[in-house]
Amino acid sequence: MSYHTFELIRSQTIDALKIRVEEYRHKTTGAQHIHLAADNNENVFLVALRTVPHDSTGVAHILEHTALCGSKKYPVRDPFFMMVRRSLNTFMNAFTSSDWTAYPFASQNQKDFNNLLDVYLDAVFFSRLDELDFAQEGHRVEFAETDNPNSDLVFKGVVFNEMKGAMSSVSSQVWHTLCKYLYPTSTYHYNSGGEPEDIPNLTYQQLQDFYRTHYHPSNAIFMTYGDIPAAVHQEKFETQALNQFEKLNELISVDDEKRYHAPIAVEEAYPLDENDADDIEHKNHVVVAWLLGKTTNLDESLEAQLISNILLDNSASPLQQALETSELGQAPSPLCGLDDSSREMAFVCGLEGCKLEDANKVEAMILGVMEKVAADGIPQEQIEASLHQLELSQREVGGDGYPYGLQLILTGLTSATHRGDAIALLDIDAALENLRRKTQDPQFIQQAVRKWLLENPHRVRLTMRPDLHMNARIQAAEVARLGKLKASLSEDDKKAIIARSHALQARQLQHDDESILPKVGLEDIPAQLHYTPGTHESSNQFPLRCYSAGTNGLVYQQITVKLPALTDEQIKLLPYYSICLTELGTGDKDYLANQRWQAEVVGSIHAFSSIRGAGDDVQNIDAYLTLSAKALSRNNAAMNELMRNTLLNVRFDELARIRELISQNRARREQSITGQGHSLAMTAACAGMSPAAKIAQQLGGLEGISAVKALDNTLADEKNLAAFAAQLHQIHQLVLQAPKQFLIVGEEEHLDSYRKDLQDYWPEESAAASFAPFQLAPVSHSVREAWITNTQVNFCAKAYATVPSEHPDAAPLTVLGGFLRNGFLHRAIREQGGAYGGGASQDSNSASFRFYSYRDPRLVETLDDFDASLKWLEETTHQPQALEEAILGVIGSIDKPGSPAGEAKSTYQAELFGRTREKRELFRNRVVAVTLDDLKRVAKTYLDPDKASIALVTHSGHKELAEKMGLAIKVC
Fold it and tell me: CB 3.0–4.6 Å: which of 463, 504, 833, 920 could bond 267 by disulfide?
């Protein structure tokens, strides 16, 4: 049933996903509405606009930001962030892709859903696009000293600084440079997010023109998911937006790429900080890429996914094996794989950590692997394993990162963007069966590799070499550009810049009437915490938890081992032990045979350690190692066999493989810094506050990244490598003696058979004669550090020792984080300071309260703003509404749903560490009861600036400043 202004195009039930897909068209504007009807109260909305930029000024990205800064119906300065805190949303964001911009949200509360829908529709189709918001979110020039026209000019802007941070990532630079050549004529040639040197070229008029042509219902795709009927959505679309538009004659689309007649090879440079200059001759990146078929062609898309899986899925895949074991580089490129996010797909592979002169050899090696596959084919069992992985990914019910409905929507969005069949990309069972039939032809894979890769002339080889002086040249060019601009300014121009700075500051400080925005209140909060119950039973005397969940034919299993006592040296090796446990051979199988076995049986298998402080004393820790896997229901017995073999028979004698794994881990960890800088800074700042916080810094933080770099260098010596493997083996022997327990998550009708398989594969064992559990010494000291790395922006953190989760003050401290962010930090750090993000939060696991900034152009001023927020809290008269908003934010985070399996696993892991349902309910109730007086009390009690710990992540240009601040300098 559709609303009268929409017409139904088609409807199709997809049993594998438990949804009915309905496609509608708006009769007047032609707007498309795709509704995924499901028995799920987490309703999802997304409106996407085809956005096709023709330069790298970031117009689509800056428009995404600016459109959310006030609209016709809601003329307040920041309705998006205001609604974040006036809502019980389970997801709320906006995205700019290479050829679309999307505005999605999700909520389990229908009143809240309708509130958000109202605000989103008005923001997208009736945005005010105030010029001051463009200056704040996009770019502007100001004098370094706001009122001093004799001081230097500087560029400012949220997106400007965001993209400086994003483009600090080497992998981002390699990708965008590759696209420049792989897509020579289409929109993908440009960086839709914006290149920092191009962003200042965008004018306010160009932003407005882009909005008028692209943000129109005729260019829009509405997508919804959940149990609200399509007609209900459509009535709101019509009455709140669509009835004010006629059809747009202009068709926004991406043209087919102009194809090369012969492969090309290009070389460019990327900036490298001088602190990373060691072994610089091995810091080149070599990638080879092919342009394939259209993403809108389901058969071609699945064929490309299959070829990519066969070549790269695991360490036994022919191309992945060649890249991992090659002496020509340190590790496979992070870009390896199939990119199907654009109109035409791209397949990319390559190496990082190469010598410049080896670029030809890298390309020849890659082509050699493909020639061998084309000549000899692939064993049928490996093809079946790849098909198995495609089937499993189609069946799995996600929802642990993005809401499940949003994941499904995004699956269909690329095809819808290019006016393809979005439903076909969701209902792939028939196409997958057709692909399975094709693979019965022994020549199918060989022919596909020849067609798409070997005989495809649209191939690009890109070599990216490091340049130690490039950052300095980029900075000098920016200074020269600003100097030239300043020299051209008249006195009136200078006055205008100063006037705009004051106007923007006044706008940022103005208090809008928030009451015009819809809201939910504390009365809308569910009375009780959603809880996923499980059984407490035993299997051959092993403790067992079973959870019934709607897993759509998948089964999840975990083996949890209590960590044994380890020496300090062994503790430092825990991350590497966890990595190696599932990546080495077992018994008589080498690692290649084991990887093939994994691909045939499970969707994933991995191990991880968890170390947490007690809920009433963070100095008292508990620790576990977990081996986790998932499989299709029919493979449960085989999964049990695989997991048992992995845990009991892993072999640490494959020294070359161990060396590869550490080298690959180093590469991944080094690449993570600019994307996770704020988390890494907070981890460093909290390292002195509890044993678990210290170990988090040593193993997973900046200290851990430095450690893996040093370890990787030492393992070049064969004696050191053998000794390292022996240490891993010693840890494993201790793990084998530790007590075990099990988790099973699956559909109710299959649980009994899963229990039987567990009993069959894990017979009763005699208890170890003695077992000493994992322990850490108490920790309590301050931290003052600056970590120097390869970045153009900063990440700041300031932390305070507080209380663990069971303490009554944990609740007001948790609410305080959102309260300070909403009322002060967002404005001071993001809007005025120009950082991409900033805020504060209580971490009860480490008993710490952390302030942070993300992709920040400032250092000292941001740390001062952290302190200023506490003064603001104490001296300002606050409204009850502000407290309610902070409480809603915390409750929304607590109540946020996950996938059916994810919720069961989260409950299991929480209860391992004593976070029972009752304790979590008590904390939630305490959150709802927090008062304004509580916030001021806990701030005064725990947040004394003289006792703060500080950690910064910055670049070498700030080394002297950090030293003047009294910070210890560390290099990562």
Answer: 463
